[in-house]
């Protein structure tokens, strides 16, 4: 049974979409996991970055899936180059499935807060990991997406606005649980994006603001590098563009930490999915 992870920070521009793609690439390529990514953001940056170069795609969008109540016709498979980690030489292919975003999704009147959850349930058995890229604000779609997940993972820069976004995200999870809509949604962890080495402000923020997160903070930090924008521009995860780049190691190590944490949750008694 696949684990469903929402990638969310209440603050925009924290690297949600970029890390969704990079983690999906690492899970699928290095971890041989069957991965589904869901673009639940009307900006459609995830969709553009993974499928932008492709012509006619017959699969519908997330909006179409919500309208029809079925995901079956709305999953598109993207195929990417698998490269040797040391030499960068081509050594095969791997795939990531995507439910594409829709620019008009926010105009959808959806009274069912569990619609995304029901849709994903339909295909959950087919995947190891399902990642939902969420919009940075807080709309009905944000709640529906969070309710479709077992866990939230939160990217944050070493930046006070983003760190405040972490506590707003935690508050939102608590509100959702207190409201009775979910008793299982949980923060799996927080990770640092766009990390700049030897930056004294970052060090100060790390020591002060992030201390309170304790074990929630993943050890792996993902560095600041323009190659991630290049990967999005060329419509592929960074591990397919340049597998030997150090940022690929960052994301690989983060993906392993996430898998380990999921494994621990599974041992503690499952993901709690379906316990409403
Ligand atoms: N590790 C990184 N190093 C350098 N640039 C990065 C990194 N991660 C993301 N970026 C860049 O930062 C910008 C914002 O990233 P991204 O779109 O992933 O954030 P987001 O949280 O999804 O934004 P939004 O809130 O608008 O959905 C993009 O231009 C992206 O290329
Ligand atoms: Mg985004």
| CATH superfamily membership | P-loop containing nucleotide triphosphate hydrolases
Q: Which ligands does the model contain, each kind named once?
A: adenosine-5'-triphosphate, magnesium ion
Instruction: Report the order of strands and helices.
Output: EHEHHEEHEHEHEHEHHH
Unreliable runs, pLDDT <50, ≥5 residues? Answer: none
Strands ordered across the widest β-sheet: 3-4-2-5-1-6-7-8
Through-space gap between termini = 18 Å
Overall helicity: 25-40%
Strand content: 15-25%
Structural commentary:
The chain has 276 residues and is α/β, with parallel strands linked by helices. The chain has one domain: Rossmann fold. Helices cover 38% and strands 21% of the residues. The chain is built from ten helices and eight strands. It has an eight-stranded mixed β-sheet with strand order 3-4-2-5-1-6-7-8, with helices on both faces. Strand 3 and strand 4 form a beta hairpin. The chain starts with a strand and ends in a 9-residue tail after the last helix. The structure holds adenosine-5'-triphosphate (ATP) and magnesium ion. The site of adenosine-5'-triphosphate has 19 residues, from helix 1, strand 7 and helix 8.
């Amino acid at each position: 049974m696949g684990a469903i992870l929402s990638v969310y920070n209440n603050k925009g521009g924290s690297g949600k979409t970029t890390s969704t793609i990079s983690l999906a690439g690492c899970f699928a390529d290095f971890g041989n996991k069957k991965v589904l990514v869901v673009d639940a953001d009307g900006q459609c940056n995830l969709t553009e970055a993974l499928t932008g170069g492709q012509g006619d795609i017959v699969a519908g969008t997330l909006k179409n899936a919500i309208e029809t109540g079925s995901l079956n016709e709305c999953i598109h498979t993207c195929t990417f180059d698998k490269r040797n980690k040391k030499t960068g030489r081509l050594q095969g292919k791997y795939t990531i499935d995507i439910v594409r975003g829709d620019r008009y999704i926010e105009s959808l009147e959806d009274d069912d807060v569990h619609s995304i959850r029901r849709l994903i349930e339909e295909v959950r058995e087919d995947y190891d990991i399902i990642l939902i890229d969420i919009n940075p604000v807080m709309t009905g779609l944000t709640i529906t997406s969070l309710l479709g997940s077992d866990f939230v993972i939160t990217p944050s820069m070493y930046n006070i606005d983003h760190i405040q976004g972490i506590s707003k995200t935690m508050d939102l999870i608590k509100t959702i649980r207190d409201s009775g809509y979910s008793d299982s949604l949980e923060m799996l962890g927080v990770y640092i994006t766009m990390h700049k080495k030897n930056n004294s402000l970052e060090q100060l923020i790390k020591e002060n603001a992030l201390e309170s997160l304790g074990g929630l903070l993943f050890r792996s930090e993902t560095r600041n590098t323009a190659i991630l924008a290049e990967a999005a521009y060329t419509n592929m995860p960074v591990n397919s563009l340049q597998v030997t780049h150090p940022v690929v190691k960052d994301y690989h190590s983060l993906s392993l930490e996430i898998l380990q944490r999921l494994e621990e949750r599974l041992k503690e008694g499952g993901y709690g999915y379906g316990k409403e």
